[in-house]
TrEMBL record:
Natural source organism: Heyndrickxia oleronia
Organism lineage string: Bacteria, Bacillati, Bacillota, Bacilli, Bacillales
Keywords recorded for this protein, A-Z: ATP-binding, Nucleotide-binding, Transport
Keyword set includes Metal-binding: no
Name by which UniProt lists this protein: ABC transporter ATP-binding protein
Pfam family, one: ABC_tran
């Protein structure tokens, strides 16, 4: 159960597309789908929603082929598109009612709670809504029928930081209910806080699938050190510490794990200034993007 892709391939006439994608999102898992612009995230998601027919391979949700069972998939899966196409001339509530009717949704309690938490006037005509307001309508539409599977394409685009945090809360609540969630994102913080695993796609190909806990364990501390003399620079260079850059008396070094040895080396130097920061997940992901970039 959950979401499976098996050698999913789609080549557009311009040669772009997605190629031989095989990965799964397990039942109850939150999976982050990352990649630079144009990598193929939305194309993958459109296949999962049954909007596109794969050229090769397959996409399945809960064992159902997404193309052959597209009507059932679109009715049950909670989907937030990257760009929402709204009908003209209706307001947010009318749009949500329309969807609720199509899905045969009876209970509006969770919908109303979501509208309250997202703090917006749902009766505003959609054509008068800001990008962020439209995104909120999209989030309510995706979550309101309490679906077991959620597929979210850049869910926080257009949301302010407060609403981004609220969104993270909503995802964590759904996760605790055992929901299966795939979300594409450029926002590393929300991936860090919500996802169990991440898949990284570049130029239509999957370049890595990683456990977020493993990535977090790989996070290194970066030290900015300003020493007093060139002798100090030499001492640090000789110590076998990973040096990222040297600018006269200023060094940037990376340390992972063995802090004692590092502190012993520093104790032999004269330090004018020391600054520490933890490598962000974003920096780790960028390493994947770059690694693959240099291969192509
Ligand atoms: N219908 C289409 N016809 C032709 N090319 C397409 C079509 N849809 C997408 N593409 C191309 O396929 C590639 C992948 O696009 P896609 O929208 O899936 O990327 P994305 O990872 O979602 O990017 P972004 O982060 O910018 O939303 C791009 O080069 C895009 O131009």
């Amino acid at each position: 159960m959950g979401i499976q892709m098996n050698q999913l391939t789609k080549v557009f006439p311009n040669g772009k597309g997605i190629f031989d994608l095989s990965f799964e999102v397990k039942k109850g898992e939150v999976f982050g789908y990352l990649g630079p612009n144009g990598a193929g995230k939305s194309t993958t998601i459109r296949h999962l929603m049954g909007f596109m027919k794969p050229e090769l391979g397959s996409a399945k949700i809960n064992g159902m082929d997404c193309w052959k069972n597209s009507a059932e998939i679109q009715k049950t899966v909670g989907y937030l598109p990257g760009e929402i196409a709204f009908l003209d001339g209706i307001n947010g509530l009318e749009f949500l009612e329309l969807l609720a009717g199509m899905r045969g949704m009876k209970d509006r309690t969770y919908r109303d709670q979501l509208i309250r938490r997202l703090q917006f006037d749902v009766t505003t005509p959609i054509r008068k809504m800001s990008k962020g307001m439209k995104q909120k309508v999209g989030i309510v539409a995706a979550f309101m029928h309490d679906p077991q599977i959620l597929i979210l394409d850049e869910p926080t685009s257009g949301l302010d930081p407060l609403m981004q945090s609220l969104f993270v809360e909503l995802v964590l609540e759904e996760k605790s209910k055992g929901k299966t969630i795939l979300m594409s994102s450029h926002m590393f913080q929300e991936i860090d806080r919500t996802c169990d695993r991440v898949g990284i796609i570049k130029d239509g190909r999957l370049v890595a699938v990683e456990d977020v806990k493993n990535l977090q364990a790989k996070q290194r501390k970066l030290f900015d050190i300003l020493v007093e003399t060139m002798n100090d620079v030499e001492t640090i260079k000789q110590a076998g510490i990973e040096i990222l850059s040297i600018d006269h008396l200023r060094l940037k070094v990376a340390v992972q794990g063995d802090y004692n040895r590092f502190i012993k080396v520093l104790s032999q130097c004269h330090i004018q200034h020391l600054d520490i920061h933890t490598q962000s997940l974003e920096e780790i992901f960028m390493h994947y993007y770059d690694k693959e970039g240099s291969r192509s």
